[in-house]
Please model this.
Amino acid sequence: MKPVIESARLLLAEFTKFRTVRGWMIALCAAAVVFVLVSFFSAYESRSGNSLVPNGPGGEAVTDTYTFVHQQLGGDGTFTTRVTSLEGEYSSPDAPAGAVSTSSNSAQNSLPEPGLAPWAKAGLILEPDTNQGARYTAVMVTGSHGVQMQYNYTHDSPGLSGAVGPSSPRWLRLTRAGDVITGYDSANGVHWDEIGTARLTGLPRTVQIGLFVTSPAYFASGTSVEGTPSAATATFDHISVRGGLPRGSWIEDAVGGSSPSTWRQRSAGAFTISGSGDIAPLVGGEGAATHWSGASIVNGTIVALLFVIVLAALSATSEYRRGLFRATFAASPRRVLAAKAAVAGSLAFTAGATATAIAEVVTRHVFAANGNYLFPQSGPDTARVIIGTGLFLGLAAALAVALGTMLRRSAATIAVSIVLLILPGILATATSLPANIDSWLMRLTPTAAFAIQATLPRYSLVTDAYIPANGYFPISPWTGLAVLAAYTAAALGAAVWLVRLRDARPGAD
Model:
């Protein structure tokens, strides 16, 4: 019982010390206010003017842009084709935005470079209409993922592996039986393998079926934030149809404004088609119309973190500035340091969680008012961001207290804290580091705790820059926070050891 009473007494004493320094309390309140203001202005500066993002059958945000050469299919039927090539090009980073073209003078105007996006797609697709976000089933060849059968944007089944080419063509087939669509592939057009089936409930009798080509952003360096526009061109032949499909009435649609969108019918059963875009879930960083409140919350957290570091450093080093450290640590260095860290951490947690809750409400409203699309965010995710950000700032304060106790100088403590808590994130998001180094920085340093604010969806069937600059982290939210907790615990342990060795003995200076 006595240790508990002693710990409570020390907590009260440390809280009283902090509370009686008016400047510290004012700065703590200012940290919360600045957090909200920085988040607000970050959101206010983001103006898309276009929040019209199509939603898929499950309500998820999707990107739905492709070249579609199609006919109407009335009732059941089977559509078969062979893909003999899939080639691509992407806009040079030095080219103007959106400058990808398959025209003869594209090399002069847009500086295209050869390169096939890993999720470039070409194949067969069936859908009720050509509206963006419509239900669909497709079987396709891809740039780097072999043959795939995908439906309704989030479902994916693999088929034959390997790249398509003149020496390794791929045969594709879609069969409709009511609401059930089955996808097949073959290497020779004789022996067929079923890839999978999809049920599109309520599918109308008359649907659109045909050939499509699309190509998403190309990330040449692996560290680009947005990638560069790309285009793909596929060659189809041996087209055959069984079922209620009228002949000689092919229609070309640039669904979603695919650019380039070109096609050429080389013979009755052979086409060359080019397209750009994607048929997939929409993820962060794909375009100017996609924003989320977490982007501004991160900006506010960084500024508040600076306040917290300074306050925690001052609270820890004040004992040394005043020459009181011998009396302070004489009784129980471990309990005294724990009390200091707990008080600084609890106050930082309270200010951070409160500011985050306000900023979440304010920024989402501002983003929506400015015409930006907001990714849906569940209640549990919002609660995790609010509580997690508070814990992040609380652990950062405790870490700074431990560093201040070890270093005994405010300036040195602040500098080391910034190097540990902020600099790795800046290096990972604002510089072009070699591949994977930015990822390891966000895994192995205390900056990993920023992952607690990640709420954006992530899909394996989308190639995108899944990097912190786009709201993605290479570590799970609570694991990232655990990394910071481990650093904090290690620093507190080292500080206790050093205090016992250096400051809590007679004659310490």
